[in-house]
Structures are given as structure tokens and as C-alpha cells.
Amino acid sequence: MAFKEYGNYDAVGLAELVRKKQVTPRELLGEAIARTAKVDPQINAVVVKHYDYAERQIDRGLPDGPFTGVPFLLKDLDLLAGTRTTSGATILKDFVADHTGTLAQRFLDTGVSIFGKSSSPEFGLMPTTESRLHGPTRNPWNLAHSSGGSSGGAAAAVAARILPVAHASDGGGSIRIPASASGVFGLKPTRARNPLGPDRGEGWGGFSCGHVVSISVRDSAVMMDAIHGPEPSSPYVAPTPERPFSQEVGRDPGKLRIAFTDRSPYGDAIDPEIATAVREIAGLLAGLGHHVEERTPELAADPAAVMATIVGGNTALTVRLIEQRIGREMTDKDLEVLTLASSHNAKNTSATDYVAAQLAAFQISRALATFFETCDLFLCPTLCSPPLRIGELDTMSNDLSHIAPILRRYMPATAMFNMSGQPAMSVPLAWNKAGLPLGMMFSAKLGDEGTLFRAAGQLEQTRPWRSKLPPVSA
Family, per the entry (predicted)? Predict the structure, then answer.
């Protein structure tokens, strides 16, 4: 295989070439490293490079799995024994993991070679990836814009064709937001579908989960087949899928009942190009034979207020554990102002306030469950304004009052599906006149990734996106 063809394949396709001995894992690794050298100086997506780790993996012999020999990036929040994991934080810039997380091990078991870590904002707190430690990760479609967050490095690397699939995680939209901003496919699975141990039973009160972003729908489905399922420490399990997820891609979705809106869940008007794109996709779905109607769920509580309390409490615990390990109080030389402020605010929040936020999240979940009794899918924009410009969110500012209004305008609809635990995906179906991607978000009932994969497969065939390349591309 001429290496110029590398970018024509998704991860399943590259693994098939390895199985047929048309290319070796070391050759694929070499190509991924060469592509990183070519484009990463511009986008800053691969912030921890441990090529020697991947080479040792190959030398020892990779497991026989669905992605044997495929290069892979782990998000710089998850632990991989013997490698640096910074979580985007200055205080952790030299931290080396002494064990491997369950999800990372399941990735290893698929046969991938993990050659580095993709960038994240500090502790994954922001929908843009601009940590003080590593600097901004730029959007391959326009370097003045953010690639999204918190899995911004993963999405930028996949969009720029460094590799076809990469680890991502989502606590309030962090798979779907960068997938939308960077023009790739990203599905947030059902709560507890994929493991979070051994150090956590759940993340952010059950809001957070891990999976991947990818160029193709089938890469996401095949990966989920390989990594899903409980572990001994799982506090609960996701509903059992009807069949392997990979068998859903390409399967006739039937006539789906699809509700849609081109407005923010707060009722606010959104960017007009995004609103037009939503209506265009709704028309496309109707043309495919689905029943499409305009309506939206009514939420019983404010998702932003819930997130502030739940995430703040979890951030405060993270800061406390670091302080206990280091043996001193953290300052703004160690952690960003936003992180410290979130932790400080949480200390002024009572246990009763935290439980009240959990109850509000349940009320949101209940309202969404009721809404989905009369539809199979809900379509809305992943983001309600185009990808943020670099520097628009400043986590080191002494005045953080600019952040909440931007978040409400930018990504008002993603977090509610973390609260409900429902699966949701961002599909790269539109671009604005400036050439920036506009992802469309589809959500389904709890446990029903199958319907999402069937719909995504149909859309991928009807309105393909893989051949669209950003200006910064390997």
C-alpha cells in the first residue's frame, strides 16, 4: 500500500489491511507519526507523545482484535501505566501513571497501538481545548477557531487525518461538541455502557462516559462492540443491546418518528445558518421516509445550574486529592483560575445542595423519558453557534463572568442527555459559509444506541462526509 492511501481508510479498513498482510502495524505507526509531525505543529492535538510505548507494544505482539495494528490516541485524562497523564494541568505535567484504567485496557485489547495522548482542557472542564499547560488546540478547518472540548485534541487529530479513530469522553457534551466543531462523528453511549474503573464507579455523578470520535460510523460501532460491558466495580449496567452494534450500521432503520427543533432548549434563537441547516436535515429525513415533526421537550430544571453544582463538587474533590498527594494548597501557579474558582464555590455548597442538584437531574431525565415515549429520535443542533474563536473562553481571567453566557449560547442542549444517561451523537452533516462544520445532534431512548447507529449509517450513505477534508490535513 502506498502510504498516500492511509487517509482513504477508516480504522476497520486499516485493520483489514493488516490482517491481509498488505501493511504492517509498524508501517501504520510510522505513517501516524509522520502525519503528526506534518500537521500537529499547526493544530496542537497530540500533547503527550510516547512513540516508544507503541513500538514496544508492536515488538511484544499486538492482541488479535478488531483494530490490530491501528494507531490510536488516548485522551490526556485516562491512565496508561508507565506514560505521562497531565489532565491538562500544570501541577501534573510530569505525572506518570502507575496503572492502566479499565477502558484504556479494553482499547489495548482491541489491538490498537497507543502512540500518544490527545489534548484536553484542564480536567476536561471546558467545551474548548485551551489549557495553560499545553496551549490551544486549533480547529483544522480554521486555525483561529477552537476544535471544541473537552475531547478537542482527539477530534482535531481525526479531522486532520492523523488517524481515523481516537478515544474521547463526554460529561456534558465533550464527545459531541468537538465532533461538531471539527466535522467528525461522535457518539456518547448510554450511561454505564462502557467502563470507568478501577478508580471510579461513575464520573461526575453518572454524567460522564467514554468512547471515541471517528471518521466513519462503523468504527464507532465496532469499537463499542469491543469495549462495552460492566466490570466488577460497576455500580449498575446499561440495557443489553438487541444485537452487535456493528450489525446496526447499514441496517434499514425503518420509518422513524423524529422530533426536531431549530432553537435552544431555553427557547433562545440560535445562529441562523445553524437553524437553516437543522431544517434542511429535517427535510432530508422526511424525504427518506421518516415521520418528522417540530416539537421539543420541556425541561423541569435548568441543566446549567445542575452542571455547576455536580461538576463543581467533583472538581473540588479532584483538587483536594492533589493537595493531599502534594502536601500543600493549590494556587493559580498550579491550577487554572477556573478550576480553583469551581473548587472554592463547591466548598460553599452544602450536601443538601448537591442532593438537590441530583434531584433536578432526575427531573430532567423524567421529562426526557416522557418525551421519548412518542418519538424514536430527537434532532437538534449540537452547537447553537459556530465553533468558538481561540481565546473566547479565558479560564485564567480574574473575571469569569463571561463564561456562563457563552456556554448558554454555545452548547445549551448537550448536557441534558448526560443527566438522563441517554445515548446521543453528533453527525457532521453541514458546514457554514465560512467553511466551519455544523454538527447535528440526534438522541434516543436509554439503551437504544442501535437506532442511532442505523440512522447514522443511513445518513452517512445519503450525505457522506468522509471525503470532505479541512485545509489543515495530513
Answer: Belongs to the amidase family.
